[in-house]
Amino acid sequence: MKRHLISAADLTRDDAVLILDTAEEMARVADRPIKKLPTLRGRTVVNLFFEDSTRTRISFEAAEKRLSADVINFSAKGSSVSKGESLKDTAQTLEAMGVDAVVIRHPASGAPHRLAASGWIDAAVINAGDGTHQHPTQALLDAFTLRRRLVGRGDDGTETLGRDLAGQRVTVVGDILHSRVARSNVDLLHTLGARVTLVAPPTLLPVGVEHWPCEVSYDLDAVLPKSDAVMMLRVQRERMSAAFFPTEREYTRRYGLDANRMAKMPVHAIVMHPGPMVRGMEITAEVADSDRCTVVEQVTNGVSIRMAVLYLLLGGNEPATTPHPSGERPAATTESAEEK
Ligand code: NCD
After folding, report:
1. pLDDT digits (tens, 9 = 90+) for 219-235
2. Residue having the nearest C-alpha atom to atom 7 of ligand 1
3. pTM confidence score
């Protein structure tokens, strides 16, 4: 595996499967009374967020804390960035503090790559979403959710699937043009052998999409019966400078998922959403709250995936989830007492 995680396209099938398998081990930690491992004790991780985030940011922080790392949170608002400080100066400040990993979200596509390739910083760089480019840990947590929900539960009930997602049909619906989640998912799902179909109005599809390793359709109703999972995306108004569709009502009518449409999906098929959802726009409240919708599960899985990525990138030599030697007081108990 590479030293940084910038793009889902950088992951080989073996890398991806290793992360997913490690995340399974990490998920088991969540069932323990003390949800903490000593793995990253003494290592410092900085969360560098230049763009709004709820789920991704909280989930990285939870993952870092569960691995006992020292965590520094930095948001552009209220920092010297709002005074015009460059990414280079910010990076050099972090380097001076001796950080081991930087988790970065940035509105500019390519910012994490710049940080990793610049030599400004020695730390491992993890992309937590850059512009419309990539969001690799989101794709990994989506693949993890798909694997847990679908593998071994095909239409005919037989376990024909391997440890990857071979043959699974995943439909991604909505604002593909502005979505780093869509780009990362197409890359990773293709690597894992899934068949991806994108559904969007022509104006919300990027130029060159015909060269992506997926199918494209404009007809949601036709694709739904042939989907094992349907991933709904938010319309990213903050990245739009023009009108991409006539009205919200028209968008919802053609590309929104309501209960009637969901009924067209095979019985085993799931509904996914990276969040934040705009209820009433791309998804109705009824679908969002149904037990076929995995949005909350995706958030839970995000913590396990981010623990796995941090563990693998920061090069833990010992097995990820070695139990504490019997009798020894778990480090986590001492630490949480100190923190108070
Ligand atoms: C997405 C993002 O920020 O790229 N959300 C997320 O990370 N869970 C998608 C979105 O903002 O719509």
Report:
1. 999 999 999 999 999 99
2. 56
3. 0.90
